């Protein structure tokens, strides 16, 4: 135990982590979990502990002395199964059971993960996928999205020792069939959830439940949010009482009048709405399609030459040379054909060995950023513009690569 706690202390001291997920947490002793809880709280009062629990009474592990939350496999099954069977009674029962059984335990909700079939593969009707995410984001607990599923990628378990590999692919920078509509929907759900406390920690109440339609509300400090889902074969009109004079759908921006406290909201088939007081809804801009950032092409190590071509044969591309960076070093641009090698070993022109971990996108400018790690001594992680990482430089009259590719 002391050794494991010293490892946790290292990660908090060195990397300032804020939480830990424990795999197969039902295999740990209660005493150990309690000791980890007390130890981490002594270092960070808000440190977060999550346990992977599949079956059993979740309150046994998630309580004030042990984990803050556990993986919500009960509602994971309930969400996709409700949509496959067109039976919202199943997920409604699971939600009410958990609220009654576990009270305010904040579950870790998910629709797929590294151990189960991807949602896009398990759903019988792909048109139900957006309603699944609306349900997960609007129900009690913390929502999570498994990497790649925001693009609607598929993945089914294989066989044998490598059965889980199809669920854990290496995501290519250029995905041929990514679902931009789903990505936009999930992004909107995230923005809505962050802006409305009622759907974060508010109360839950069922309002209108049928096999293929479901209306429930979340409420906190007098603010009410109505969540409407329709997976029937046609439009469905929800009729309910509300204190608001006018309400708006935060997903589409549509406004609806309320007559004498009676609302009638028609939801198209295979759609969902998140209805709020129209005075609290922001002015919705005209919808524009998402413009995907152009991916940077990366190559496999086997496709990259082991050593750069002689300097006199390198052709400099039309990348505008940067200004003099000082110390006698000038940019000569990125030679034609030079591409980043993810996982590749590079040597800096001043010495030092690095591994290129990934190519990221700057959130504000969409500029491609090289993320790389030093493998000499302390493993510091660095980032710089990709063009700068790949460029040739003039080092006191000698042309050389700023980072020379060595091998994978």
Assembly state (oligomeric): single chain
- Arithmetic mean pLDDT: 87
Question: What is the radius of gyration computed over CA atoms, rounded to a whole number of angstroms?
Answer: 26 Å
Number of helices: 10
CATH architecture of the largest domain: Alpha-Beta Barrel
- CATH homologous superfamily grouping of the largest domain: Glycosidases
Helicity level, as a percent range? 10-25%
Name of the CATH first level of the largest domain: Alpha Beta
In short:
This protein is α+β, with helices and mostly antiparallel strands and 408 residues long.
Tell me about this structure:
By secondary structure, the protein is an alpha+beta fold. The chain folds into three domains: 2-200, Alpha-Beta Barrel (TIM Barrel), CATH 3.20.20; 207-277, Sandwich (Immunoglobulin-like), CATH 2.60.40; 301-407, DUF1653-like domain (SH3 type barrels, Roll), CATH 2.30.30.320. It is 24% helix and 25% strand. It has ten helices and 21 strands. It has helices spanning 2-15, 30-43, 58-61, 73-84, 88-102, 119-122, 129-138, 180-195, 198-201, 386-390, and strands at 19-22, 48-51, 69-70, 108-109, 142-143, 203-209, 213-220, 223-230, 236-241, 246-249, 255-257, 262-267, 271-277, 329-331, 345-348, 353-361, 368-374, 381-385, 392-395, 398-401, 403-407. The strands form six sheets. A six-stranded antiparallel sheet has the order 6-7-8-13-10-11. The protein has a five-stranded antiparallel sheet with strand order 18-17-16-15-21. Helix 4 (73-84) runs antiparallel to helix 5 (88-102) and helix 7 (129-138) packs parallel to helix 8. The chain is globular, with a radius of gyration of 26 Å. The chain starts with a helix and ends with a strand.
